Amino acid sequence: MNTPKDINNLLEPGQDLMNLVKGGFIAQGKSMAQWCREHSICRTNAQYAVMGLRNGPKARDLRKRVIKAAGVNPNEAGVEPCE
């Protein structure tokens, strides 16, 4: 299996990604809000980054952190690379 170098290029921000992230956290027995509190991150900022409502450099970095923490693997999520 090929490990992507940049998961931001493989997972399109939006509601589908938010659902994958939330599911990943639930599978770990926690919520995205709990993870944000534990890491002193504003939940709204994390949510906006995952949804693509904020898309600057810091938001993209935050999105990558949240995706990684949720354990979302784009190769196993059944998503295609976005152009």
What does this structure look like?
- The chain has 83 residues and is mostly helical.
- The chain has one domain.
- The protein is 52% helix and 0% strand.
- The chain has four helices and no strands.
- Helix 1 packs across helix 4 and helix 3 crosses helix 4.
- The two termini are 21 Å apart.
- The N terminus is likely disordered.
- This is DNA-binding protein.
- It comes from Thalassospira marina.
How many domains make up the coordinates?
A: 1
Largest sheet: none
Count, helices: 4
Strand-residue fraction? under 5%
Helical proportion, percent range: 40-55%
* Envelope shape: globular
* Helix and strand run: HHHH
Head-to-tail CA distance between termini: 21 Å
The rounded Rg comes to 12 Å
Structural class: mainly alpha
Average pLDDT metric = 84
Count of extended strands:
0
Low-confidence stretches: 1-5
Short synopsis of the structure:
With 83 residues, the chain is mostly helical. It has four helices and no strands.
Key terms:
single chain; 83 residues; mainly alpha; 4 helices; globular; disordered N terminus; DNA-binding protein
Annotate the secondary structure layout.
Blueprint: H1 15-27, H2 32-38, H3 43-51, H4 57-70
Helix pairs in contact: 1-4, 3-4
Protein name: DNA-binding protein
